[in-house]
Predict the structure.
Amino acid sequence: MNQALRAHLPSPDLHLGIPGFRFADLHDAARLADLTREFDDFLRAADVALFARYCAHRGGSARLRGPEESELLLDLGAHLSHFVARLFGVERESGKLREAAGRDAPIFRVKREFVQRRVFKKGAKDRPGAADFAELDARVRPLLDAAARRDPRVSTAQDDGELRVALLIETLLDAVRAQPASQEFFAWRDLCGALQRGLADAGLPAKEYESGDAALPDKLLDLFDRWLYALSLQPHRPDWTLLRLPQPLDFQRLVPLRRPRTDRPRSDRPRSDRPREDRPRADRPRSDRPREDRPRYAVWKAALSGDKTLTLWPADRAFFERVHRGFHAIAAAEPDRVRIIDATRELATVSEDIWCVVAPLFGK
């Protein structure tokens, strides 16, 4: 094998992000013990109190059970995530993922607690139509603009319209059950002040937001409920995560029965979309046919008696010729995806040809 191809092979001495450790050490029990001690030092430096709890639980002097143990593992998980990211040198990529997850947290909460349970609740009454969207949007849009300009939390969404909607609705959800002098209560008061000032800046009525009435959050949630539902009916609605709901499963059609590529060769065996009991006997699954009527496919099966050697159930030559023609037709139709390699030669030669085809793909 030439040196250019060997260059694509991963080095067995690949160094990890923790000094003194190589990739091969991950398969060495003694070195894994050393790596555990490295994590202990990492955890001790990051959180002394958590490290003490972890050692007491692990050592058995103060072993936890139930919710307390779960809480300890969750606290450890955050530090373990940072340690693994450093170990494999992906701290920057891991940080980007955490930032994205932090951005999406309000969106997924609003989707779960408001959109799924209220906006698209099955059997909900008095749903608006697509024609009602213009009137609802004329009421909602000034509120979103006012909050984006004046509210300290909603304004962090900047030009992200979906996040802006999610942050505003999340504040309203918290306000419904907020206790006096709580963080959620003060966030609601900030939003009321922002809406009052923002609407006044636009020359719109804002008097109802002066008092911060306790019934106002429910009133605004009703408005956003109807607005989101009408928005989902628009032909050019935004591609928001909030509006993408799981599709109900049809267990009778988990696997598509129609071939997406009609130009590809298919087997001679007919397929049917009709219910099982309505199919002709020749078109039913093999398990429904008597043994003497089943096709003779090439399958391996361990013998249940004797010396338990593997035996091969033979298929006729016509079957293998059809398979051969089918694969060659696919290779001819898609030369960039399928390559043909003659496997009748020496093993080393076949292996070299396979690697010549596969090796350039590692560089892409």
Summary: The beta strands are 299-302, 310-313. Residues 91-119 form the longest helix (29 residues).
